[in-house]
Design brief:
The chain has three domains: 90 residues, 2-Layer Sandwich (Dna Ligase, domain 1); 126 residues, D-amino Acid Aminotransferase, Chain A, domain 1 (2-Layer Sandwich), CATH 3.30.470.20; 150 residues, 3-Layer(aba) Sandwich (Rossmann fold). It contains 13 helices and 19 strands. The strands form five sheets. Strands 8, 9, 10, 11, 12 and 13 form a six-stranded antiparallel sheet that branches. The protein has a four-stranded antiparallel sheet with strand order 1-7-2-4. The chain has a four-stranded parallel sheet with strand order 15-17-18-19, sandwiched between helices. α5 crosses α6 and α10 packs across α11. The chain is elongated, with a radius of gyration of 25 Å. Belongs to the succinate/malate CoA ligase beta subunit family. Keywords: ATP-binding, Ligase, Magnesium, Metal-binding, Nucleotide-binding, Tricarboxylic acid cycle.
Length: 399
Amino acid sequence: MNIHEYQAKQVLKEYGAPVAEGVAIFSADEAEAAAKSLPGPLWVVKSQIHAGGRGKGKFKELGPEAKGGVRLAFTLDEVKSHSADMLGNTLVTAQTGDAGKVVNRLYIEDGADIDRELYLSLLVDRTCGQVAFVASTEGGMDIEEVAHNTPELILTLPIDPLQGVTENKASALCDTLKLEGEARADGMKLFPILYKAFVEKDMALLEINPLIVMENGRLRVLDAKVSFDGNALFRHEDIVALRDKTEEDEKEIEASKHDLAYVALEGNIGCMVNGAGLAMATMDIIKLYGAEPANFLDVGGGATKEKVTSAFKIITSDPNVQGILVNIFGGIMRCDVIAEGVLAAVKEVGLQVPLVVRLEGTNVELGKKIISESGMNVIPADDLDDAAQKIVAAVKEVA
């Protein structure tokens, strides 16, 4: 689960991280009062969406010459003007895709005099099975280019969970970021704070880009991007309360109600599969034969008829879907349950696009019999390769 920048900063502030004062607003009418409550005389008006690259982004409605989604304001009139420009308009960044995201809230923050911009993040490093810091002196909007062109400028530092952030590890991070004086003292305090927050709140990612050294020599968290492990949210009611459903795909929200692992994609072939590995393989083979998957959908190992029906409804609610591939290997999941669920959904919502079903495993013959005797226009497949070729061909024929 993702949260907004201002929410992430509030979480980090509770742990003692140095962040600027700021106010979240939801209408342009609130902008002036928000700015007046901050020290000034420089303010930063920041679009709040679940995507990076806001500073370089462009608003669809404002034209290519308009400023991006993060703007400096030197007067109250500029704060109000920027707020009116951004709220309600669609910000397109490198991470949103062409559709962009509508800006429904802003964060007005007290400005800072920046001396240097640094990069710092924490993530789960699966190569070593530990939480790791990633640090670089090359912070800011071009960190992706740094990672691509000069990876030697980036340090990855795993943290032993039994020891935490030791003085030696914190010192190594300070050395990498070339921190001296008060900034180094701030860093020695900050790194254990961030690690504690990451672990205690079950974060999946904590990215600070940039972490800045101000002209007064102190450190400040200037931006913060945080996502949480969805499997651990039951332990954090305070974090769940921060969820902004307007930033999520409606189909993904519906899927979460039925405990379905669903991610919307941009292709035209809907997929319903059991098991994450098989789902990935299904998407890969669809691409191999020249088409694109419209979603990742794992119904899980113990799905019921009702759960399968819900999954099918979610797939068919996507207007981009021109064909559906059901690919089930029955272990714990029985093929007859899948067959009954698919047919129940077809009867309820109708079948307007080609449907290919490949079943294998527990009760496979019964599942195939249920489908063959249904009288519905379902295309059977013998294996995954056969299924992929059939659905791609069927979609191309319809198109």
